[in-house]
Specification:
single chain, mainly alpha, about 70% helix
Length: about 350
Amino acid sequence: MADPLLGDLLRRVSRSFYLSLAILPRALREPIGLAYLLARAADTVADTRLIARGERLAYLGVLRAAYAGRRADVAAVARACAPHQALAAERRLLESLPAALARLAGLPAGDRAQAEAVLETLTSGMALDLERFPGEDAAGVAALETLEDLDHYTYLVAGCVGPFWTALHVAHRPRLAAWNAGAMSALAVRFGKALQMTNVLRDVPGDLRHGRCYLPARELAVLGLAPGDLLDPARSPAARPLLRRLLAVALAHYEAAWSYTLAVPAAEWRMRLACAWPLMIGLETVAALAAHPDPLAATAPVKISRARVRAILARSLVKVWSNGALGAEARRLRAAVAV
């Protein structure tokens, strides 16, 4: 029987993550998939702009309590927020919160503890985001202050997933018993940061329109820019040096992420594919951003086509068994990024 939560619903709310989840060994799909769905539900609540910011923070607090195993009325959150969702999949996601939480409570104790811990960190990042950016549109745009703030943000909303992913795989896959969990978790943090930096740089125009600027204000000031200047097509090209620096930061994280992926034993080919796919897709996206004449002026997010994604999947199935072939693919993708 098809799984209503980790099958169709997960596929509809995250096509890219669903690829990685679907290829994982069965024992890992449930804890990782449930953690993703619950985090995605919290993010949907945080982004429901038709509800006042203070109410969203309160609803997020209810979800955080429930995710930590405390009594909380998540059904009330779903009733308040689901009707405001334009997408049917997001309405269904919120309506499925009680079922997802019941599944979370039924996980083995170790898996449940790992999921609860990563959800605590992820939702703390969502709450911080709501508090840091008080505006809802371009007129109220605010920015992170420093590069350190940006690095911390990428940890809270993505980097923290790396140790969770690593701990679960080490617990469930005997071939990883020899791994140095601390060292591999550190690489896995950078894996998540690589993907989130890609999202940050891809989504600058849309974030600005919603009052959020993740390009640090101090770095913009060095270039003679204020966050609001990025909305002006005549001024935004002046931010190109900062974009190049941040692309270089992202690429350094990708290097660490590939080190992580190539350390996965070839016999754990499912895990290798689940890691390689987002890295390959992400690096092609970074290359498209680097080649764009002015990504800040893009009217739609820069992304690769579905045909390119299918090509990535096809190439990876041949190369996943060989560190030499997979490493060569990583170097080829990196060389295509002009920064």
